[in-house]
Every structure is written in structure tokens, then in C-alpha cells.
Design brief:
Blueprint: H1 31-34, H2 37-57, H3 67-75, H4 81-85, H5 92-110
Helix pairs in contact: 2-3, 2-5
């Protein structure tokens, strides 16, 4: 009829489907490749702690610390609030709220339970 129209739906398939990407199009980082097996084990424990605290607070886990910040804690072998403060994006508010729990785990895994 006079008011009829054709509609086309075109989809795009990326030929580089093997590359992992997140929502904003950046490549995902596989920390298993970047950290030693021992460090990755600590990283997983930190992520589990972060998830538990986030669920209790009703906030997303990344609002506590990002994966990159957790990896930096492990890489730098952080065991003090000064060490946390030296990581990009970690300020006084996060230290006040979360340092005690994360530092306790980091000290335990490093063998420095002072």
C-alpha cells in the first residue's frame, strides 16, 4: 500500500573475534598472564574479599578497588597504609574504610603478620 516501507537489519561481525574486549572496547587484562602463580593466588583472595565487602555494602566491587589496584597491591607486596596510598586512585576514604581488611590478608599471605 501507500504507507508501506521496507526495513533492513544489518549486523556487523568482527573478524577478530578471538580478542577479548569489555564494554567500553578496551582489551580485557588476564591477570593470570601478568602475575606469577603465587601472586595470582593472592590476587584471587583479594578479589574474593572485595566481593564479600561489596555485597555487604550493597555496592559494585569496583567501587572498593579496581582489579588493577588489587594487582598493584600484590605486585608491590603492600603491607602498610603508606603502600596503599602510593597506588594510583587509592585515597584516604578508601584507606579508612577498607585498609584494615585488605592489609590483614596481604600480611597473612606475605608471612608478615605484624
Amino acid at each position: 500500500g501507500a504507507n508501506s516501507a521496507w526495513t533492513f537489519c544489518i549486523s556487523y561481525e568482527d573478524t577478530n573475534a578471538s580478542k577479548k574486549t569489555n564494554v567500553v572496547g578496551k582489551s580485557k587484562i588476564d591477570y593470570r598472564d601478568l602475575l606469577s602463580p603465587e601472586d595470582f593466588s593472592v590476587f584471587v583472595q583479594l578479589r574474593t574479599l572485595r566481593k564479600t565487602l561489596a555485597e555487604k555494602a550493597g555496592i559494585p566491587p569496583f567501587a572498593i578497588f579496581s582489579n588493577e589496584q588489587l594487582a598493584e597491591m600484590v605486585r608491590r607486596r603492600v603491607v602498610s597504609t603508606k603502600g596503599l596510598r602510593d597506588i594510583d586512585g587509592i585515597g584516604d576514604a578508601r584507606i579508612e574504610r577498607y585498609a584494615e581488611a585488605f592489609l590483614a590478608l596481604l600480611r597473612k599471605t606475605s608471612g608478615d603478620e605484624a
